[in-house]
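This section describes the prediction task in plain terms. A model, or a person checking by hand, is given the sequence of a single protein chain and must write out its three-dimensional structure as a string of tokens. No templates, partner chains or ligands are provided. The sample shown here is typical of the held-out split.
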Amino acid sequence: MAEFSTDVSLEDVAVRDPRISSAVDEPVRAMILDMLAERDMTIRQVHSELADRGYDRTENTVRHHVNELRDVGLVEVTQLEERRGGTTKYYRANTILLSYSVPEEHEAAVDEMVDRIQPDVAELVAVLEDEFGETLRAISGEMSPCEHCRTQKYETFLLLTVLRRAFVRAHARDVLGGDE
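The expected answer:
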């Protein structure tokens, strides 16, 4: 039998939170999350926009999907409005779902950008580990294992979480012009 071997380098990390994955595995929920990332909406508005996108279900079904997203912390109630003896809730996503792949013909350009900023990111990770190593280890000690993994990489997950959230805040402030 022929032996096939090659050197494989670590290229990327996919972060998967099981609670969140199950909430957005339903395509309509991903669509709702995308809509609520743009603006605050009521269930009725979400229902109407989903119908415009070809998803025509009952308002109660839409409410169920929004509640599932809210229950895992991806959507929040932003406003309560009293109307005609009832309360209308406005919802907004606090998370943006990105589900894309880089076109193969642009991988070289992405690699060039990665090579350019990698030393800066390595320095930033070193600062985080130096200044917050004890906190990272303490949090890691309280994390639950992933049911699919034999080895746990809690500190890697925490560092990525910090960097990802810092990116979101910087992006919102610098690119989108807000303080989100």
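For orientation: The helical segments are 18-24, 27-36, 43-52, 59-71, 107-142, 154-174.
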